[in-house]
Design a protein that fits this description.
five-stranded mixed β-sheet, single chain, four-stranded antiparallel β-sheet, 634 residues, alpha+beta
């Protein structure tokens, strides 16, 4: 239980991480055994390849004579992806565009790679799905001559792989037409026909980081549509430089996290470089120790990305051992790092990842300097309260197991203490502005008010404008009721702390970011100018989205609580009523309409009052979202 306690607050010493790895090792062994038994029961699935028993026996020899070599292949991230994928194909729950025997035959490829690592004599045959490349997992790629240079169509062939063992010459890979590629010794060398697996290394006082840049393994990617970016020497060096700098930042600010990351993470699938903002990254429970990640713009972004996915990897491995959430169709919830509403299982994964990110910024900002320190303080302020609000939501949703409640409570108590740590008031204010804007846009995009409420409010406004606003039920949650829009105001706030000179330039060229004069006025605290600008925009285009939330933020800045309550707490309702009124009569003043609706809903007014304390908007938003049963749970 001590290990689970450590993990519940985002940590994990060598013993705790070792237990997670042991659990994943058991899972991999079970998967491999299941694949073997399924193929052995139907030998025809191996096609022209040797029986699966020969690959099984070779792996058994490696396990007996060199357990470390066996474990290296067994626990390599792509092995888990392959085993889970091919098992689904064998069971008929997943189809594939390549012949089944080539995917099942990867068993021989795994066995060959393990035998090479162990230095054992062997002779086998392995599939070459594209007719030209044979990837040996964790080692590199053999580049074979095509079977027919004039035939550009990809064809599946079989290559022979043999070795007399250490001291018996080179590993030989022979193509169907007899062309032979001899692997070098050591395998990290480059010779014609052999491309060693690119790697990045970074040294530290206790542990160094070593990650394979797996850009050719067919089972390294695990997200459809996300393919690796094939590296050249220039891009590999860029990854190396960023990794060294990111590792230095991690080791300097949080050596315990760095140690755990180095122990656990094994490979990185490099995706196309990010052009702006933060890089896309993803991990999978089937790829323990692996991550897919865009080449980021800065070392700090790489450090955050690695910590983020390390958290997911830990929680995914833990969830293979314990149950933290209840099964069933629960509600959807607000996650401040996502555009779409999330089920509890996704919310738990996200909040655990952001616990690690908040911890990174908390420990990094005191050792950073200059603009980097300002960026780090803002990020710490921005995410600590938003993450705490999600934890509050999880504890009130009723969808956690008893162990899950204990686990999340530990996170909550830790973050609550961090939220008491003082930060400059102007940083807190900007963090609250970005958070409130994000929540308002999320509500507008994913809320669907009842048609009967829209009609009743519109009719009352048109016929009896001085009467009290009728009541309205809470809106149903539905993903992407409105198209997704760029979070321009939140981006401007972030840029203020990351790159002030760029913000100065954007004031002169706001269209490049899609910003308006009202957005920059709001950022500068000129709420009167922002209010006028947003009202004008909405009178001209009431179907717009972003100006409604801008109007709410400006109204809150001016002290108009009723309007702010409606525009930030029920923006989807205000917008829908405005559009209905415009259809049936003259367009309403958007600010007056919002005041009218806001005065009728005191619980929404309380939301705005809570928002005046940093982070309160998110906490209230979560409680509102939980109360709405989704029409289509996901």
């Amino acid at each position: 239980m001590e290990s689970v306690a450590q993990l519940s607050v985002g940590g994990g010493d060598a013993e705790a991480l070792g237990q997670l790895r042991y659990g994943q090792k058991s899972k991999r062994l079970l998967l491999i055994r299941m694949v073997f038994e399924a193929v052995a029961a139907d030998p025809a699935t191996m096609g022209p390849l040797p029986l699966v028993r020969s690959a099984w026996d070779l792996l058994g020899r490696v396990q007996y004579e060199d357990p470390d070599a066996f474990e290296e292949i067994l626990m390599y991230p792509s092995t888990g992806v392959w085993a889970a994928h091919v098992l689904r194909r064998l069971r008929g729950v997943r189809s594939g565009s390549v012949p089944l025997w080539t995917e099942v035959g990867y068993f021989h490829t795994l066995a060959a790679a393990a035998a090479i690592r162990a230095g054992l004599e062997f002779h086998t045959r392995a599939p070459v799905p594209d007719g030209g490349t044979l990837h040996l997992p964790s080692l590199g790629t053999v580049l074979l001559p095509r079977a027919d240079a004039d035939d550009i169509r990809p064809q599946t062939h079989v290559a022979t792989v043999r070795w007399a063992g250490r001291g018996g010459g080179s590993v030989a890979v022979v193509s169907p037409r007899g062309a032979c590629v001899l692997l070098p010794e050591p395998l990290e060398s480059t010779v014609p026909g052999w491309r060693p697996l690119p790697q990045v290394r970074a040294e530290g006082p206790r542990h160094g980081l070593r990650l394979a840049l797996d850009d050719t393994d067919p089972y390294a990617p695990f997200v459809a549509g996300q393919q690796p970016a094939l590296l050249n020497e220039q891009s590999r060096q860029r990854w190396q430089a960023l990794t060294e700098q990111a590792w230095e930042a991690l080791v300097r600010s949080q050596p315990d996290t760095a140690d755990g990351l180095a122990y656990t993470m094994r490979s990185l699938v490099p995706l196309a470089p990010v052009t702006e903002g933060e890089p896309y990254s993803v991990s999978s429970p089937e790829s323990f120790g692996g991550v897919m990640l865009q080449l980021p713009l800065s070392p700090t972004s790489l450090a955050v990305g690695l910590v983020h996915e390390f958290q997911h990897v830990k929680l995914g491995a833990l969830l293979d051992l314990v149950t933290l959430t209840r099964q069933g169709d629960g509600g959807l919830h607000y996650a401040p790092w996502r555009l779409d509403p999330r089920p509890v299982s996704g919310l738990l994964q996200g909040v655990y990842a952001y616990l690690g990110i908040v911890a990174f910024w908390r420990r990094y900002h005191p050792v950073a300097s200059g603009q980097e320190a300002l960026r780090a303080r803002f990020a710490y302020a921005r995410w600590r309260r938003s993450t705490l609000a999600v934890l509050d939501d999880l504890l009130t949703c009723g969808e956690l197991t008893e162990l899950g409640v204990w686990f999340v409570t530990n996170m909550q108590e830790l973050l609550a203490g961090w939220c008491e740590e003082p930060l400059p008031a102007h940083i807190e204010t900007d963090a609250a502005l970005a958070a409130a804007d994000n929540l308002g846009m999320w509500r507008l995009r994913n809320g669907r008010p009842a048609a009967s409420d829209i009609g009743a409010l519109a009719e009352s406004w048109i016929r009896t404008p001085r009467a009290a606003c009728p009541g309205a039920k809470r809106s149903a949650l539905q993903t992407d009721v409105l198209p997704r829009e760029r979070a321009v105001r939140a981006e401007l706030v972030k840029i203020r702390w990351e790159d002030p000179r760029r913000l100065d330039w954007l004031r002169e060229h706001p269209d490049t970011l899609g910003a308006t004069f009202s957005d920059t006025a709001l950022l500068d605290g000129d709420f009167d100018a922002a209010l006028r600008g947003y009202r004008q925009q909405l009178m001209a285009r009431p179907e717009a989205s972003s100006p409604w939330i801008g109007l709410g933020l400006a109204a809150r800045g001016r002290g108009n609580r009723a309007a702010a309550a409606a525009l930030l707490g029920r923006p989807e309702l205000v917008r829908a009523v405005q559009l209905r009124v415009a259809e049936e009569a003259a367009p309403a003043d958007p600010l007056a309409l919002a005041e009218w609706i806001g005065r009728r809903h005191p619980e929404v007014t309380e939301t705005v009052e809570a928002a005046e304390g940093t982070g309160g908007m998110e906490r209230a938003g979560r409680a509102e979202a939980v109360a709405v049963p989704p029409p289509h749970p996901t």
